[in-house]
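SAMPLE LOG
Freezer: B-3
Tube label: C17
Construct: single chain, 189 aa
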Amino acid sequence: MAIGVAIVVLVIVILVVVGIVGYFIGIYNGLVRLKNDIKKSWGNIDVLLKQRSDELPKLINTVKGYMKHEKGVLTQITEARSALLKAKSVPEKAAADSQITGALKTLFAVAENYPQLKANENFMHLQQRISGIENELADRREFYNDSCNQFNIRIESFPDMIVANMMKLTPKEMFKAAEEEKKDVKVEF
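STRUCTURE (predicted):
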């Protein structure tokens, strides 16, 4: 009888240990999945940033002939594009992206004053293409921020924080709009 009770207790202890180990393995795998979701979502943003960057020289060349007095806007776009191409980290790329977005807003606002430019088929196509990429970027940024938020919540929540500390995971920074992007575009003549 004592042997039977000892076996039952041993089986219960083994099941509890296996359950706890399984639970922590689940936490580990979930954190790994979230960490990789963040990398994937940033990769998707990076692809769109590259596409937009590739379209900018075409846009600038189309606009140059029409906007002889707006060299500052074109220079701003060119400098922002260079900063994006040189950027290595997520914050650097986010800052360069904000510069490009602001410069494009200004460019499209200024283009309203050039009827011939607005009627140019290449300009219209490029404007639509870049606007489409901007919309896709907004969606991807939202997914990236959602992934970062879920990850940050998990690594700060108990018991996930125990596994996160063992994995040396740190909170991920979300994509934030620059202050310039939050302001209205000013068009001066």
